[in-house]
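DM between two lab members

TW: hey, do you still have the TRAP ABC transporter substrate-binding protein entry open?
JB: yeah, one sec
JB: this one, 298 aa:
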Amino acid sequence: MTRTRISPAHLLLGSLLTLGAAQAAPPMLNVATGSPTGTYSAMFKNVGQLCTQSAYLRERGTSGSLENIDLLLNNEVSLAFVQSDVLKARQQIDKDPRVEGIRALLPLHHEEIHLFARPAVVKKNILGKTTVTGVQNFADLKGKKVGAWGGSIITARVVGAMTEVPYQIQTFKDQASAFAALQAGQVDAVLAVVGQPAAWVKNLSGVQLLAVPSTPKLNTIYTPAKLFYPNLGAQSVPTIAVQSVLATRDFKTPDKKKLLLDYQKCAMQKLVNLQEDEGMHPKWQDVTFKTWPWPQYK
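TW: and the structure you got?
JB:
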C-alpha cells in the first residue's frame, strides 16, 4: 500500500484556503419581522428576492414592534422592523438610553391605525325612542376597553393621551386573542397598527372600522390616512398612520457594517423594482427612502 506524503507547503496552502473561505463568509444576521402573514415579513422577503446579500439575513417571526425593539436592544437580533412611534416612546417616555444607539437602516412605509368594533345595536322602544348600544365613533371609547398587542399597545397609549379620550387598554399576545375578546364582549374595540392592505383584515367579518381623528397634536407624530376594505363595507375610512423603519444598532465591526450598508444600497437602488414587479407588497409604493423619522445608519 502506497502512502501519499503531504508536504508542509501543501498543508500551509490548505490552511490558507480554509482561512480565506472563513474570512470571506459574511456573518449571519437575524432580522425581527412579525407574523408570517404580516407586512413586515412580506417586505423582508421582497428585498430578499432582489438583493443576493440578503442570503445572510435570517428572518425571526415575532409579535411585532414592541417585541422587535426589545430583541434589538437586548442584542438578540441585528435588525428589526419597528414603528417610529414605538422608538420615540421608548426614548421620550421610558427614557431608555440604549435607544440613542439605534439607527434606521431603511425608512419604510406608513402603517395605518385600524380601529375595530362590533356593529352598534340600534333599538326603538314602543314609544319610538331610539337607543344605541356599542361604539359608533372614536369619542364613544371614553371609559371603554380597547384591546391591542405588540407595538399597537404603545400606539393605543399615545393616541389615547393625545386625544384626551380616556379608554382602558387591554393587552393581548396576538391578533387572534384580541379579536376573540372582542367577539366575546370582553373589550369594546381593538386597535391594530398594520400596513394596508393587511391579509388578515381582508378575511374579517362581523366587525366595523371606526374613523380615528387627525388633530394638530397627533400630526406631530402621525399623518392623515384612509382605509379601504370592501369586505367590511369600508370604502374610505379616515385614520392616521405612523412611519415604520428597518432599524439596526450603530455597529462598527467592518464585516457587519459592510453587509448592512450593501443591503441598504441594494434596496435603495432596487426601489422601482420593489414598487413595480408583480408579487411585491403594495406598500412599497408608499416608500420613498427620503423621509427619515430616525437617525440614518451610515
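TW: got it. The two ends are 61 Å apart (CA to CA). The first helix runs from residue 8 to 24.
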